[in-house]
Amino acid sequence: MDITNNEQILMKLREIPPSKACHLAKSFYYYPVRLRMINSCIIMRCIIVQESIISYLVPEDRRDQILIPEEIKAIIEDEDRIPPDIVQKICRIGETSMGGVEFKLIMNDNKEVLCNIPLGPGFADFLSLPQRYLMEDIKDVKAAARQFIQPGTSLSPRYKDLNWCAIDDALMEKVLNIDK
Question: Are the beta carbons of 162 and 125 closer than 8 angstroms?
């Protein structure tokens, strides 16, 4: 379904489980998604968040790159997204190294994948897994003792590699079923 108005954005986002920000001074929900824009471009690793906090999240030199809802043709659940329940477990681990969280993903074959995310952005939704694994292969997560990042460590995208889309606060509240 192509998106042509706010009600369609609301309906599509309600189909996608939100994530809750971790490791940030502010607590809020957001949607890690892919977007197809009206020019047919696919935007990967996009964070949809409400307008009132976008300036808190996006550095001033990147604010002109914030996507606007009027440019969206479709919202797509991102296949590179870690399952939301695993993201919350990662958030509960907390800081394990200077400015970051090191953890191990336990895969369905019981092998462990060492991972690292920076605390700054507080978004643990996207990781690059070894090629043999898919996100649905993640069974659990556990804290990793302080380890140096080694070759083969799965890293989250750098903060500057995330894309951003701001939606109206009232629409976000409707999506999340927040009554004021």
Answer: no
Element housing 43 (H / E): strand 42-50
For 54-174, list the strands marked E by DSSP.
Answer: 72-77, 100-107, 112-118, 138-143, 154-155, 163-167
Contact present, 173 and 180 (Cβ < 8 Å): yes
Instruction: List all residues 6 or more positions away from 102 whose beta carbon is below 8 Å from its beta carbon.
Output: 96, 114, 115, 116, 143, 144, 146, 147, 149
Residue 24 pLDDT grade (very low, low, confident, very high; cuts 50, 70, 90): low
Residue 133 to residue 82: CA distance in whole angstroms: 12
Whether residue 54 is predicted with pLDDT greater than 90 in this model: the reply is no
Asked whether 66 and 58 are in contact (CB, 8 A), the reply is yes
* Chain center to CA of 172: 16
Whether 103 and 92 have beta carbons less than 8 Å apart is answered as no
Work out the pLDDT band at 36, boundaries 50, 70, 90.
very high
8 Å CB contact between 72 and 11: no
127's tokens = 């990781």
Note the Cα 48 to chain centre separation in Å.
9
